[in-house]
Amino acid sequence: MFNKHDITRNEFMLTGPLAHHGYDWWWHSFTGVDAETGEEKPFFIEFFTINPALGGAKPVFGQTDAHEKPSYLMVKCGAWGEGKCQLHRFFAWNDVTLTKGAPYRIEAGDCVAAEDMLIGSVDITPEAARSHPEWMCDAGSMRWELRVEKDIAFNVGYGASKPMRDAEAFQMYWHAEGMKTRYSGTVILNGRQYIVTPERSFGYADKNWGRDFTSPWVWLSSCSLRSKKTGEELQNSVFDIGGGRPKIYFVPLDRRLLGVMYYEGREYDFNFSKLHLMVKTDFSFEETDGEVIWHVRQENIHAVMETEIRCLKRDMLLVNYEAPDGTKRHNRLWNGGNGRGTVKLWDKTPGGLSLVDEIECTRVGCEYGEYGE
Predict the structure, then answer these.
(1) Fewer Cβ atoms within 10 Å of its own Cβ: the N or the C terminal residue of the chain?
(2) What is the CA radius of gyration of the chain?
(3) CA 205/CA 185 separation, integer angstroms
């Protein structure tokens, strides 16, 4: 069972050694509708924390001539598509209030993130963006007030359990408390108001934490799915794929992904850490002049899933993060919310493969990057 909610995995994780060398973030993405034109726009909001034990009265940035280890809360937000942008607002640790248990809550200024709500604002002038390259962001303004209802979870199992967290076994941990999430409220982006409703938000919420990032870095997810068999929207379905090249006790594993499909209440689990499922995964990524494309084939003892997603580069961002040691290794990390493609799902039967469905996917959250690019 991967649809197992566990809000203790959403707790703030930067204690012990990770307080001096670690990051922890809560990510949210969803769709809103322009209040005047009815046009859809995909948004993201993230609360990113790093090296709290090294902080104090001011944010500390790694991308400066001083080459320090960074320490701050970064509120990251923005949109994909026309007018795309990523906006960053930084807070010193002395100005941050957080709950260290479950349910989580983190607050600074007028920005709040919790299990059931998101409130905040970021406002970056063009002059500030130009004069502060260490902020790694664009110019613009965004304000939001949202309710959050997490419907379907992707719990990766023992790999992110408390014993494995306490041992700091993995370089990067993942938990999707709301791989299908309903958002409601409003967003104002650069003066335009967008209405977010539970039925059409097509939302996603997860978190990552650890000592460093992964390379390659892969993420694909959507709950905006339509059956090609029936032509109907799948109201109780979502898929989520992520990973790359995990490290356990500093030893890199082969290119591996965690992946699941929740298909109208049926669970299809392609989690490589569940050895009894005998999961096999092949994936590749390619760029054309105008698109980026993901190919993923996952197989376990019960089923096969093939996923192909593509996204227009003009709709995407190259998102920016610095690692706990102050380096910026991912300099070409493609990130989008307008992906589209197909998922083909088969059951294994004594007579061979039996097609469950071919699924049209839209509004796909998608990411790919490798070090050194």
Answers:
(1) N
(2) 20
(3) 16
